[in-house]
Design brief:
Layout lengths: L1 H20 L13 E5 L7 H5 L25 H8 L19 E3 L14 H4 L6 H19 L20 E5 L2 H10 L2 H24 L4 E5 L8 H5 L15 H24 L4 E5 L1 H10 L15 E4 L2 E4 L3 E4 L2 E4 L19 H12 L4 E2 L12
Length: 380
């Protein structure tokens, strides 16, 4: 715990010094007219529900009061980012009801990967909407909305993005966790490590595609500590030596750290390749790991505890599901106070945990360069 405290202090001091060194006081606030997000379930605001089957109760209960397509009790990190920028929550690209794309769109789909997987949603939850498909969807979205915007009456334009806002928008990437999960599922370390350069290169190609179409500001999340997810800790016969000081699986976190190391290197290289782009690398891993290490001090219960679901005596029933166990129907509902928990369902974070992480990345404390998101359009 002392190591975590020292690490947190170092990060905070470094961030303050670094922000001052880039002359933050002299930078104007960026005017992001829209946000476009690409990702998986960590930032899916309803695309998966529109494409496959809707997220049911008790999801959404804390903030929205009903299921709204998020695998969480309330808001996600992307929701807090939109609010911070003074924009509405992003409408999913695939949602055909009640959508407005005036201030951006969300192409994230739960289960999505960067690199297409030869697997299926029904088999193991892998989405067919890999990052390359999400980028194709964006390209079509940009072309078609531009076509209709220029040919519509003003009153028909209110739900369409303004063509000039695409170059001023913030483009967020929050994807990669499922690529790591696929590597762990296949249990082949050498194959996974050999695949990482191609995975990060495919993300880089997505950035390059958007850049060629006028995008200039990119906010790229790395992936969180997958070995700290309670679902991993509940579903494995774990030996003490397999765990780190925070009770997380060291081998699984090593996958995340290797991916993140190569992703950061690729982002740095992209800065050279795309001279007019502002690229921010956001260390989600460090932010989440800090939260996990300081769970109780931050007002949460043990980080390995799960709010929604039934996980007792080797019986595992996922959040919102029912299962008959020895003649008794078990409903895997939510805990009494979700805000006390970091983990919502063993994989996804609660709204309270998402808020904690969002507030720390928004101010630039975990970013390279260490600029707040409101200044992310500037190239140091």
């Amino acid at each position: 715990m002392e190591n975590v405290k020292v690490f947190s202090i170092i990060i905070a001091v470094f961030s303050v010094l670094s922000v001052e060194s880039v002359g933050l006081k002299d930078l104007k606030t960026c005017n992001f007219g829209a946000v476009y997000n690409f990702g998986d379930s960590n930032s899916d605001t309803g695309g998966g529900s529109a494409a496959f089957w809707p997220a049911g109760k008790p999801c959404g209960e804390t903030f929205f009061g009903r299921p709204v397509g998020r695998g969480c009790d309330g808001r996600l990190i992307i929701d807090f980012i939109a609010e911070h920028l003074g924009l509405p929550h992003l409408s999913p690209y695939l949602d055909s009801i009640g959508t407005s794309f005036r201030y951006g769109a969300n192409f994230a789909i739960g289960g999505s990967t960067i690199r297409p997987q030869n697997e299926s949603m029904s088999l193991n939850g892998v989405s067919p909407f890999s990052l390359d498909i999400q980028i194709v969807q964006f390209d079509q979205f940009k072309d078609r909305t531009g076509h209709f915007y220029n040919r519509s009456y003003p009153r028909h334009r209110r739900n369409l993005p303004r063509p000039e806002d695409f170059s001023k928008a913030l483009y967020i990437f929050d994807i990669g966790q499922n690529d790591i999960a696929a590597g762990l599922r296949k249990k082949n370390d050498s194959a996974f490590h050999a695949s990482v350069p191609d995975i990060v290169d495919q993300l880089a190609k997505a950035v390059q595609n958007l850049y060629e179409h006028g995008a200039r500001t990119f906010w790229v999340h790395n992936t969180g500590p997958i070995g700290c997810l309670p679902v991993s800790l509940h579903y494995h016969d774990i030996k003490p030596e397999e765990l780190d000081e925070q009770g997380c699986l060291k081998a699984q976190n090593a996958y995340s750290m290797e991916f993140n190391r190569q992703l950061k290197s690729r982002v740095i290289k992209l800065r050279e390749e795309l001279p007019h782009a502002a690229l921010t690398y956001v260390d989600i891993y460090a932010a989440k790991y800090e939260l996990i290490g300081n769970a109780k001090k931050q007002g949460f219960v043990e980080a390995a505890n799960i709010c929604c679901g039934f996980h007792e005596d080797e019986i595992q029933v996922y959040c919102g599901h029912k299962q008959n166990i020895n003649g008794t129907e078990i409903y895997a509902g939510s805990c009494e106070n979700p805000s006390d928990f970091i983990s919502w369902d063993g994989v996804h974070y609660t709204e309270a945990a998402n808020r904690w992480v969002a507030h720390r990345i928004i101010n630039g404390s975990f970013s390279d360069p260490p600029l707040p998101i409101n200044h992310a359009c500037h190239i140091p």
